[in-house]
Each structure stands twice: as structure tokens, then as C-alpha cells.
Amino acid sequence: MDFLKKLSGKRRGVDDLVFDTVNLIIMLLLIVVMLYPMLNTLAISFNSATDTVRGGIRLWPRQFTTYNYQHVFENAQVLRAGLTSVLRTVIGTATGVFAAACVAYAISREHFVLRRFTTIIFVLTMYMNPGLIPTYLLHRDLGLIGTFWIYIIPSLIGVFNIIVIRSFMENVPKSLFESAQMDGAGDFVQFFKIALPLSIPVIATVSLFIAVGQWNQWFDVFIYNSSIPELSTLQYELMKVLSNSNAAFNSGGDMQGAMQAATAGVVETVTPQAVRAAMTIVVSVPIICVYPFLQKYFVKGLTIGGVKG
To answer: Where would I find the ABC transmembrane type-1 domain in this sequence (predicted)?
Structure first.
């Protein structure tokens, strides 16, 4: 019997070793697959544009240069637009999360008579889109066009975010709310003292969703505020930089001569591929810096928030 136990223990040890080895190999392959595009883009962004056209850039720039970034940031409007992007991201995330949490708390309470009807109405809006023209006319009648608040108010309520937060709050022990009610606490106290503090994981998750959406948004600037430089965003300005680079590359009859001059060291130039790589890094860095602080809440917020529908 002792021999069989030792043999079975050895087999379990070998099985665990094989599993760990295979799992490690698979995880390393996934890391390489996910990191390679980003590292390749980073290398291209720091590589000479004319040298990049030759191809063969992998994980390290062959001819290091910062001219691609200088070309992106040489316009002072880009820096001003970056400040607008930061403001809309911070304000939009804070107001969006708070509004979604308020609505989610209301429809998660069993004593709210219209909770089911309200939920259905919200969900229906996810399947029906009024279209661009009616939306534009509505924003015009509300006086939002040409103002900073066009970035905040229309996106204040996100139905998906409300459903996620509501599902999370429904899993909070009801005994906590019942005890608070017995002590005379109203809905406002229960919301700020119980629901919000216990919903930090899902709040962090939804904050990341909203922040990424606000930071990457440029189409609303193009539709509503394209003629107002003070309200332009970083993404819209970088989109214009890329468009101008594409136009210059496609219409420049002497592009080959310019590339030969750049290769000879006479002048530096850019290509759409180099500008696109630099733009990608510029718009990705802020989210990459924020994500590690929210990562510990991310999985927990999604899994617990998705238990109930």
C-alpha cells in the first residue's frame, strides 16, 4: 500500500510537471503573439521613415530617430487638443460612472415598482439607433453643438454600464440594506455608504470602459466641432496629421527624390506608415499607464457583475 501511494504521488508529480510545462509554453506563445505587434509598432515609430519603407523592422529600430514624433507634435494645436482629450476623459468618466451608478442602484432595488419596465426601456435603446441626422438635430436643438458639453452629456448614460453595475449591486447582501433601513437610513445614505463602497470593483471596470471610449473618440469632434480649434481633441488632430501625410505621400511626384535625399542624410522625411506608428504609441500610452492601477478590479468586476442578468 505504501508503495502504491508513493507511485501515485510520483505520477501526480509528473502529471503536474507536464501540465505546468505545457501551460507555460502556451502562455509564452500568447505573450509573444500579443506583445509583438505593439513592440513592432514602437520600433517603427522610432525608426527612420525612409528606412522603414525597406521593411524588415522587427523589435528594434534599425536607424533610430525621434523625427516621427517631432512631426506629430510640431503643431502647437496638437498639445492643446491633448489637454481637451484629457479633460473630456476625466470629466466624462467621472460623470458617466456616477450617473450609471445612480440609475443602476435605483433599478436594483426591489421596492422600486417600475424597475422591470425601466430596465426593458433601457435595453431597447441598445437595439434601436435613431441615426445620425435625428441625433444631430437633437443636439442642435439642445444647444450642444459648438460646446465642450457635446462630449459629455450625450454619453452620460451608457446602458451596458448600467446593466453591469446593476447586476453587481444585486449581489450585495440584502441584510446590509435592511440593517441600514432599521437604523433609519434612506436611499441616499444606503447608496453612498453601502452600495458605492462595495461596488468599487465594478466601478473601476466601468471607469476603464468609459475612459477608453472617451479617449479614443474623434468622430463626434468631426461631426459637431470640426470648425472650432479650441474644442479639437488629440485623436482628431492626429487623424488630420495622418490624412495630410497620406495626401502628401500620394500626391508628391518627387517623393522618390526626397527619400533619396533623406537616405543621403540631407533631410529627414516621414511616411504614412511612420506617422501611423507614432500616432498609435501616442494614443496608447495614457491607457497603458492607467490600466495597471485598475487591473486588480477588472476581472472581479466583470465576473461578479455578470452573475445575474
So the answer is: 82-294
Does the residue 16 lie in any domain? no
What SS3 class is residue 66? coil
Which domain CATH number covers 257? Answer: 1.10.3720.10
Total-model pTM: 0.77
58 is a domain residue: no
User: Residue 95: inside a domain, yes or no?
Assistant: yes
Around Cβ 72, how many Cβ atoms within 10 Å? 23
Q: Can you point out the beta strands (E) in 166-306? A: none
Which residues lie below 8 Å from residue 145, measured CB to CB, with a gap of 6+? 136, 139, 224, 225
Q: Is residue 123 part of a domain?
A: yes
Q: The domain containing residue 156 runs over which residues?
A: 67-309
pLDDT in tens, the chain (309 residues): 554 455 455 555 677 888 888 999 999 998 888 888 888 989 998 998 878 877 788 888 888 888 888 888 887 788 888 899 999 999 999 999 999 999 999 998 888 888 889 888 888 888 888 888 899 999 999 999 999 999 999 989 889 999 989 988 888 888 888 888 888 888 889 999 999 988 888 898 899 889 989 998 889 999 999 889 889 998 888 888 777 766 666 655 445 554 554 555 545 677 778 888 888 888 888 888 877 777 666 665 555 544 444
